[in-house]
Design goal:
With 92 residues, this protein is an all-alpha fold. It has a domain of 59 residues. It has four helices and no strands. Helix 1 runs antiparallel to helix 2. The longest helix has 26 residues. It is elongated and about 40 Å long. The termini are far apart. The model has no long low-confidence stretch (mean pLDDT 81).
Length: 92
C-alpha cells in the first residue's frame, strides 16, 4: 500500500480553530495540540511495536524505505488539543 499524502485538511482545521478561538486562546491551543500529537505519536509507535526501530533510526539518522512510512492522522491531535484548550479556558 503506498503511503498516504497529507491533503491539507489538517491545515484547514487549524485555520478554522484559529478563526474560532481568536488570538490569545489559539496560542494555548497550539501548545495543547503539540502535547496531544506527541502523546498520539508515542502511543501509535508502541501500539504498532515500532518504537525501538524508530528511535534506533533517529539515532543513526537512517530514513525509512519509501514503502514503510508510518501514517498518523494529525486531525485527531488537533481536535483533542482544541477541546483541551476550550476546557482550560473555561476551567474554574
Amino acid at each position: 500500500m503506498p503511503p498516504k499524502k497529507i491533503g491539507w485538511g489538517d491545515v484547514k482545521l487549524m485555520f478554522a480553530a484559529g478563526a474560532c478561538f481568536g488570538w490569545p486562546l489559539v496560542l494555548g491551543a497550539l501548545a495543547f495540540i503539540s502535547l496531544c500529537s506527541l502523546l498520539q505519536g508515542v502511543v501509535t509507535l508502541l501500539w504498532k511495536g515500532e518504537l525501538a526501530q524508530t528511535l534506533g533510526g533517529m539515532l543513526r539518522l537512517k530514513r525509512r524505505a519509501p514503502g514503510e512510512s508510518l501514517y498518523i492522522p494529525f486531525g485527531v491531535a488537533i481536535a483533542l488539543g482544541c477541546f483541551w484548550a476550550m476546557w482550560w479556558d473555561h476551567a474554574p
